[in-house]
């Protein structure tokens, strides 16, 4: 039974321009952490991620949601988590503050993720193992498919999961091989050209075959110059992604993306405002065959559905610490699977739990095992940090979702 | 110069099921109020509106934004409000919590609206008068048109306002006539059929020629029965609107809206989730010629742009206490004008300042003077409440935006 519920505002200033992008020049990587203290002695830890200011507001909202878990049995909660998710996300007064977006939804992510963590710890298995061992029906019982009825009914979600069962064994070797990573920390926005060049070499030496550069400068020539540096150092076979962090408007994006074609980017990420589905659809047509990736700022399954319907993005970067937690991450992954679009979650080791979720997506849902973002700056703060060796995530073996923070160790 | 800045969390419980709809059964109408105390002795008051829980979080966020106004001169701020709006709405850490949506954006509305109120008081005129006396260039200087470049450049916004200047005089009589209202309080969700019938009669007797019923019952027959009651009492010539408050999914909406055609609704409002642009576009086609209205939960100009581009709604209900205040309300109104879609703001007297904004939209922008929502439950709490006589809003004459609350009177 869940007894005490604690919420903590934990912030980690970064060093040396790490984390900087075209929009966010001086972030303080922060977590709004929910901990569910179970009378078994186990503690479920979940969080949402923010850039500092306002992290306390996410905590306050998480406190409000968290109260609903008091005295609940985690197995009972998770047997029909769909119900709790609907109840919390549609709280009739809190709903006005979204609905299903912004601070209240970040708070829901924190609470939801704590539930999944406690569930996995209670069963004594890592989260990926818990999830792949659930039946399709048990998975669907944890999801809220409201407002998706035009694209994904409960029956269709079940069928989609069942259809993947016969071929699961073929995908299990990923557990031994590890899930590929890609390196985002070669080219933060404020890094000098020289540092970008150095970091590229380092990433290659470490075994990465994919890496990402921040673009979106006021001066597009800077973007183009730096992109060429990365391509030059990386060589023609490495996947190079470019991330504009919403910096361009549509006419700018069309112009600059066409220029960036010359370095053959694997994708261009967040070219413009994350609410602008139509602009992304127009852009995708205007710059084909260059592909778009987006999703780190898309707050819920409904907007993901609109993006998928519009055919605007070739990669969906849903983030379990932005949407309503693991539950909605799985919902969005199912939608993506239906539309044949790969899921490449935003933040890997920074989000910690995505290393579990991509394994589930691959094994149980048949998603391609593409790669997972690697941003190491917060690794040192976790009890069980993600381990990336030779450019590959080692499969986590400790029970839970790997989200316990050293600073909050009981 | 702006000295002290105070933020207040003000909540007004309602009586007798007033305010209830299909989603929000027991709201506590609340304001997150920003007051800018000028050294001239004047106080600018602005607010965002919520349904109670979490109103304190909007206040906290408004405090953060409000600090930026300390020691500023309001005329200087407003001469280029575009800059302040961009600065606040893109605060690099707070932005992560939206961007441009949810609690942070509600807070921005509160602060923005206080600026406009102080500006009008400083000039000793009601807000509508201040706004219609500004030149097109001065108006555009208060707007942030970022991410709208594909539909509305600064030059196009200027042209649009200039094009309306020669015919302004023809639209000035609205000031003497008053702006028509429509009555939303005939049919709150939890009202009995008998009370709905009585309220309809009362509204007709008061002079209203348009009224709205809450629908979205689990049992669609209840909706249909009550809609027929309203049509029967109102007669064939009164405009009857139906408001589902997001209760239906798309397949349900198609089915039920087609059934509700029989009462000839003037519009059907918020049929499904406010983030679902595609669903509204599909629905609009499926139920034509019945028209859709939406916007009370649309948080920003970018999503409005997407709705307008998709041709899904025939009426846009932008709300200056939901989007980033008066500034973004005007931006969205310009977008609507470009697309030929009328603006019918969410909440009239409850929002108080909309009575000013519809006069501006009509006179300076050439928007049709359709009607403005009337929800009287909070009138008694205002120093200068909206006056609706014979179904018509009397033009406010007191300086400012009519948003001062009795409970916060200096």
Question: How do you describe this structure in short?
Answer:
Chains A, B: This is Mandelate racemase. Chains A, B: Keywords: Magnesium, Metal-binding. Chain A is an alpha/beta fold.
Give the arrangement of secondary structure elements.
Two copies of one chain form a homodimer.
Chain A: E1 2-13, E2 28-38, E3 43-50, H1 55-66, H2 74-79, H3 81-89, H4 102-123, H5 127-133, H6 136-140, H7 154-164, H8 168-171, H9 174-177, E4 179-187, H10 193-206, E5 210-214, H11 220-234, E6 239-243, H12 250-260, E7 267-269, H13 277-287, E8 292-294, H14 301-310, E9 315-316, H15 326-339, H16 354-365, E10 372-374, E11 388-389, E12 392-393
Parallel strand pairs in A: 4-5, 4-10, 5-6, 6-7, 7-8, 8-9
Antiparallel strand pairs in A: 1-2, 2-3, 4-12, 11-12
Helix pairs in contact in A: 1-4, 5-16, 10-11, 12-13, 13-14, 14-15
Largest sheet of chain A: 9 strands, mixed
Order of helices and strands of chain A: EEEHHHHHHHHHEHEHEHEHEHEHHEEE
Low-confidence segments of chain A, ≥5 residues, pLDDT <50? none
Query: Measured on Cα atoms, how large is the radius of gyration of chain A?
Result: 20 Å
Give the count of structural domains of chain A. 2
What oligomeric arrangement do these chains adopt? Answer: homodimer
Keywords (chains A, B): Magnesium, Metal-binding
Domain Mandelate racemase/muconate lactonizing enzyme C-terminal (chains A, B): 193-290
Pfam families (chains A, B): MR_MLE_C
Cofactor (chains A, B): Mg(2+)
Describe this structure in words.
Chains A, B: InterPro entries: Enolase-like_C_sf, Enolase-like_N, Enolase_C-like, Mandel_Rmase/mucon_lact_enz_CS, Mandelate_racemase_C, RHMD-like. The structure is a homodimer of 410-residue chains. With 410 residues, the first copy, chain A, is of the alpha/beta class. Chain A folds into 2 domains: 2-124, Enolase-like, domain 1 (2-Layer Sandwich); 168-394, Enolase-like C-terminal domain (TIM Barrel, Alpha-Beta Barrel). The first copy, chain A, is built from 16 helices and 12 strands. In chain A, the strands form 2 sheets. In chain A, strands 4, 5, 6, 7, 8, 9, 10, 11 and 12 form a 9-stranded mixed beta sheet that branches. A 3-stranded antiparallel beta sheet of chain A has the order 1-2-3. In chain A, helix 1 (55-66) crosses helix 4 (102-123), helix 10 (193-206) runs parallel beside helix 11 and helix 13 runs parallel beside helix 14. Chain A is globular. The two termini of chain A are 18 Å apart. The mean pLDDT of chain A is 96.
């Amino acid at each position: 039974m869940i007894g005490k519920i604690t919420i903590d505002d934990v912030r980690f200033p970064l060093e040396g321009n790490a984390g900087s992008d075209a929009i966010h020049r001086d972030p303080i990587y922060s977590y709004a952490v929910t901990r569910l203290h179970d009378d078994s002695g186990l503690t479920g830890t979940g969080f949402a991620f923010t850039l500092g200011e306002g992290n306390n507001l996410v905590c306050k909202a998480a406190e409000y949601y968290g109260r609903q878990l008091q005295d609940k049995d985690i197995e009972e909660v998770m047997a029909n988590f769909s119900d709790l998710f609907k109840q919390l996300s549609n709280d009739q007064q809190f709903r006005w503050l979204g609905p299903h977006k912004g601070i209240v939804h970040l708070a829901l992510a924190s609470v939801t993720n704590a539930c999944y963590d406690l569930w996995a710890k209670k069963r004594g298995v890592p989260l990926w193992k818990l999830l792949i061992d659930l039946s399709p029906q048990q998975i669907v019982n944890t999801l809220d498919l409201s407002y998706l009825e035009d694209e994904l009914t409960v029956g269709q979600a079940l069928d989609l999961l069942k259809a993947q069962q016969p071929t699961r064994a073929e995908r299990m070797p990923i557990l031994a091989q590890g899930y590929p990573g890609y390196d985002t920390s070669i080219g933060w926005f404020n890094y000098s050209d020289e540092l970008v060049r150095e970091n590229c070499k380092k990433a290659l030496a470490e075994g990465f075959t994919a890496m990402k550069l921040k673009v979106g400068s006021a001066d597009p020539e800077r973007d183009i110059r730096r992109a060429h540096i990365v391509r030059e150092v990386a060589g023609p076979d490495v996947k190079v992604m470019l991330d504009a962090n919403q910096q361009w408007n549509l006419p700018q994006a069309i112009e600059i993306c066409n220029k960036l074609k010359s370095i053959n980017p694997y994708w261009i990420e967040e070219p413009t405002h994350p609410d602008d589905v139509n602009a992304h659809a127009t852009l995708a047509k205007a710059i084909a065959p260059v592909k778009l990736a987006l999703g780190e700022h898309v707050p819920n399954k409904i907007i993901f559905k609109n993006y998928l319907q519009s055919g605007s993005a070739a990669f969906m970067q849903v983030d379990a610490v932005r949407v309503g937690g693991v539950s909605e991450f799985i919902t969005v992954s199912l939608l993506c699977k239906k539309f044949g679009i790969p899921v490449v979650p935003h933040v890997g080791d920074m989000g910690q739990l995505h290393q579990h979720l991509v394994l589930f997506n691959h094994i149980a849902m048949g998603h391609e095992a593409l790669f997972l973002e690697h941003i190491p700056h917060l690794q040192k703060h976790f009890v069980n940090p993600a381990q990336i060796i030779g450019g590959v995530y080692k499969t986590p073996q400790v029970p839970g979702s790997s989200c316990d923070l050293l600073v909050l160790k009981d």
